[in-house]
Design brief:
single chain, about 450 residues, alpha+beta, Outer membrane efflux proteins (OEP), 4-stranded antiparallel sheet, two-stranded antiparallel sheet, 12 helices, about 60% helix, about 10% strand
Length: about 450
């Protein structure tokens, strides 16, 4: 079936080579009038303001990132529109189409002109003029198999485009989730630092009023310095995450406060995720295509046992004898020593290698899915326990302490301690939510589900 398709494609594959190789509705390469590869779609509009310069504000506006809220879907679409990796993979498809077209072309004939006659070194030579044409003739199915191999390679390049798109989506989701959670963590840590600062102020007032010893102010001061150091670290990580996301967007400016945290997805199932990965993971699809490429190359290597022949016809005139000359000949290479045995052995080994690499990739993905699902389940269990048991108790303790403070039975320091305990619990929840989101993102990446299909909801960490 594949060989028949190759024969039918011999005449049409040239048109395929000139078609644009789309990798989505957002951007794909096409031929310019000068014959060079250029971008079209949204990517062609990115970075061209009125003066032709690349302004980050203009880029953000054209990517749809200048609205009051920016969701994961918005960022993912923008990353797909500006990813040079996708453009490069799509150009590979176009190049493979050109190779398929070239593989189907018949060998060119050779024209030979010759003239013999008396010379100073051969005064008795005969005066002859000959015109000859030599045409290589393909006697095997080499052309069909070469086209089949080239078309199979083009299919693999198309699978590589899907891998590039999926990788861009995964990178966008990972960077988005990391940045949103770091932003919310910084907010909570600032609240915690404000509580610790008030505690330190009260402790210093008590020491100044000589109702407490000096050491009573040392512990809150140490806590403030520790929280300041931790907040500085979170801010640095947030800046790095913001720079990473802006790099993925081709330099577009990101307003972090506008980002909307994605809603958590359902609890993943390891068995279902593995089955989904086997069916949809683009990397596995590429691995299967590479096996087919290796098999097609093996079939092509086996055609070397029947080399092409050459048919020659020449005509001329002998002026000395006034005779007409004609000659027809066939050149047949004999595959006595070199019948492509080494190339066949190499191609067989490459088929085996491609199959083994596919099996290894399937096993690796299954292991990684198990790890990601386990991490998600563990983080969700701890998160649910904090939400159900720790946070309600911390809130109840804070309210009781406030009531006791109003009635004069507790000092304000106790209220600050209870408030700090609640903020610590919420900070722990935020960290677990980040772990769940990143683990779920890993599962989505491994199963092949596009992360941008998840809905987004406002942040609820506070």
């Amino acid at each position: 079936m594949r060989r028949a398709a190759a024969r039918s494609a011999l005449g049409a594959v040239g048109a395929v080579a000139l078609c644009a190789c789309s990798h989505g509705d957002l951007a794909h390469p096409v031929w310019s009038p000068e014959g060079s590869l250029v971008a079209s779609g949204a990517a062609a509009e990115v970075g061209r303001d009125d003066e032709g310069a690349r302004g980050v504000g203009v880029v953000a506006a054209r990517l749809g990132l200048d609205g009051p809220v920016v969701t994961l879907d918005d960022v993912t679409r923008a990353v797909l529109a500006t990813s040079p990796s996708i453009d490069a993979a799509a150009a590979d498809v176009l190049a493979a189409s050109g190779r398929a077209w070239q593989a189907g072309l018949y060998p060119n004939p050779t024209l030979e002109l010759s003239r013999d006659g008396p010379t100073a070194w051969n005064p008795l030579g005969r005066a002859e003029i000959r015109v000859g044409v030599t045409q290589p003739v393909v006697v095997s199915d080499r052309r069909e198999r070469a086209v089949t191999a080239a078309l199979t390679d083009r299919d693999a390049r198309e699978a590589a485009v899907a891998v590039a798109r999926h990788g861009a989506r995964a990178a966008a989701r990972s960077a988005f989730v990391e940045l949103v959670h770091l932003r919310d963590e910084a907010t909570l840590r600032r609240d915690l630092l404000a509580v610790a600062g008030r505690t330190l102020d009260l402790a210093r007032e008590r020491v100044a009023a000589k109702v407490a010893v000096t050491s009573e102010a040392l512990r809150p001061e140490l806590e403030v310095r520790t929280l300041e150091s931790a907040l500085a670290g979170v801010d640095r990580r947030r800046d790095a995450a913001e720079a990473r996301l802006e790099t993925l967007l081709g330099g577009a400016d990101i307003h972090v406060e506008r980002l909307v945290r994605p809603a958590p997805g359902p609890l993943p199932d390891a068995t279902g995720a593995i089955l989904a990965a086997l069916a949809r993971n683009p990397a596995l699809d590429l691995g299967r295509q590479l096996v087919e490429v290796a098999r097609a190359e093996l079939a092509l290597a086996r055609t070397a046992a029947r080399p092409d022949i050459s048919v020659r016809a020449s005509f001329g005139r002998d002026f000395d004898g006034n005779d007409f000359l004609a000659e027809v000949g066939v050149e047949i290479p004999l595959a006595v020593h070199d019948a492509g045995q080494g190339a066949v052995l190499e191609a067989q080994a490459l088929v085996s290698k491609a199959r083994s690499e596919l099996a290894a990739l399937e096993r690796e993905i299954a292991v990684r899915i198990g790890d990601a699902v386990g991490a998600s389940v563990s983080a969700r269990a701890e998160l649910n326990d904090l939400r159900a048991r720790v946070v309600p108790l911390a809130e109840k303790t804070l309210e009781a302490t406030r009531d006791e403070h109003r009635s004069g039975r507790q000092e304000f320091l106790a209220v600050l301690d209870a408030q700090r305990t609640l903020l610590d619990a919420r900070l722990a929840i935020l960290g677990l939510e980040r772990d769940v989101a990143l683990a779920d993102a890993d599962v989505l990446t491994l199963t092949g589900d596009p992360p941008c299909t998840l809905a987004s909801s406002p942040s609820s960490s506070r």
